[in-house]
């Protein structure tokens, strides 16, 4: 008897063609939506699949009866003190943490003073975290001045968390300096489940790995938050990504998010929340979850979330003493679309120039000759990213064929690179393995060349060349030169490519 | 469809084009005051519990329609023009709230476009653009949250962008700063218009006229954004409508 493929149950899984590589279907909670596999869609530009909202017969709300909400909606609900809300509602939200850095801080402070007065005080000196990280190790006068502007403001406002740097010649001489803001926020315990974290940086969405709402805002919005502690936001609908299956040992979270962005395009999640669930996600470490959420903005996403669990709580144990209350999507919550992936079928990927959604299999790019490799940034410069790269170099035992730049994201990551033993190496540290492989010496922690920066930035691409990078964007000119070609990849793939001088699938070394 | 034109400053917020009378909160039960640290009442908000009703009472002023029209040359770009192309990262050391640096930012607008764009947005040795209007494909302004992007365009002399769609942070920043009008087209105008075409945008009529080709196109209505940008961004608008106390 033929079984019906369209199941009326809202949360059933639809056809999941396991024969197809990385195939998925999007399903919706609507009874009459068509079940189709993405493979049928030819156009690269995603026409938003908005499943018609299921028209439920809602029971009369007497106050205690609530409609099902997604994780993100619940955070909005708590932060706006509205027990009931839906995607599309504009609400005033209380901000738990506001972060800014050296590029956008000065502008935000300028607006704050202009609008609230020269003598105005910030809404809460303990909820603002100021992290210089973008243009630090440079002789550019304006860049250096911008760090001074941060300091002046922090002193004047008595800001509790300012990760200052004064001695640019020796990052270790600065006890407060951390490095890349998104990693510092996590390492310093500023990310907590259920909270609202805003930052003047698009990759603020990284913090969603902790089950909180985190998104990037501009200077004007930040100036507003500085004065009031509130922001007007529209509640986003949620796209759900269910990642199941055992993660092969040649894949990393970077491959997962490249897969997803390649699937839905750089505008596929515009104005939407991306929720990551499934057995694969549950087994990811915090740093891997951060990588996943980090590139949500590359799909246009407003925020990304991974529900908090034992892994989250354990990570936070020694980092924060502030109480927090995680929230979770209700079983009957409405999602705009649901995508399912069988991770065990995926292969290492790259995003070819010049777009993060220009997805290709790493092995299909093996004839692409490269000029350099860059391992760093909030996306791919964390401790586990370096351990991963070291694993590949160790497995090979050979030297890299192209200049390989290593930029730890924070002071702590730098320390880990120099102290943590790499499994299976007989006690060697990452730094030793990198040195034996002929990589460049790990550099001072900062955002580095991920976004080019001032001309004297370490590893900046000042001529047209081909680079495999563990960073997050590869639009024209991203790392400096307009004709530079950037292949975004996981640390495994980046290390493998360094060893051959071509874009290389890491299975060449890991299997 | 959730598009970039459905911004936060929409119909359900207290930012309407009819100024809310300070003495008579007619329809919003809760008034929320919060102060800055020095005790000065900085912002007064009223929680939107219900949708703001259309102006029906006799004493409410008629909704002020944005009457802006823009006329000038248009500059056409494609899809996914990201913030690095609009203002490359090396120029981000310029602080937009500093007047000299604001002007300098403008001089670098769209300098990141690849060489395939044979006509520059700003001519060499110039600091302002001759193109008042930018026409773009989809996902304009994707990438970074840097507010320097809409600021650079506005500082360069651009008044409006007409795109097929926007990335959300760029769109939000455009409205918040009041630097440029981000308008949504209904069709793919980047394929219909060419750089150098003379165009007129009529905001009130939601229309773009290309005088060079003789064709007219519908735009999505600007709605509540208009007054916010007209006033000069969210802070200026909030002051104008009595949401925030005036500065001394």
From TrEMBL, chain A:
The keyword Iron applies. Signal peptide: none annotated. GO terms for molecular function: 3-isopropylmalate dehydratase activity; 4 iron, 4 sulfur cluster binding; metal ion binding. SUPFAM superfamilies: Aconitase iron-sulfur domain (SSF53732). Pfam families: Aconitase. CDD domains: IPMI. InterPro entries: Acnase/IPM_dHydase_lsu_aba_1/3, Acoase/IPM_deHydtase_lsu_aba, Aconitase_4Fe-4S_dom, Homoacnase/IPMdehydase_lsu, IPM_dehydratase_rel_enz, IPMI_cat. GO terms for biological process: L-leucine biosynthetic process. Residues 90-360, 364-501 form the Aconitase/3-isopropylmalate dehydratase large subunit alpha/beta/alpha domain. Keywords: 4Fe-4S, Iron, Iron-sulfur, Lyase, Metal-binding. NCBIfam families: hacA_fam (TIGR01343), PRK00402.1 (NF001614). This is Aconitase/3-isopropylmalate dehydratase large subunit alpha/beta/alpha domain-containing protein. It comes from Citrus sinensis. The lineage of its organism: Eukaryota, Viridiplantae, Streptophyta, Embryophyta, Tracheophyta.
Automatic annotation (TrEMBL), chain B:
It is found in: Plastid, Chloroplast stroma. Residues 128-178 form the Aconitase A/isopropylmalate dehydratase small subunit swivel domain. Keywords: Amino-acid biosynthesis, Lyase. One of its GO terms (molecular function) is 3-isopropylmalate dehydratase activity. Its main location: plastid. It is an enzyme of class 4 (lyase). This is 3-isopropylmalate dehydratase. It comes from Citrus sinensis.
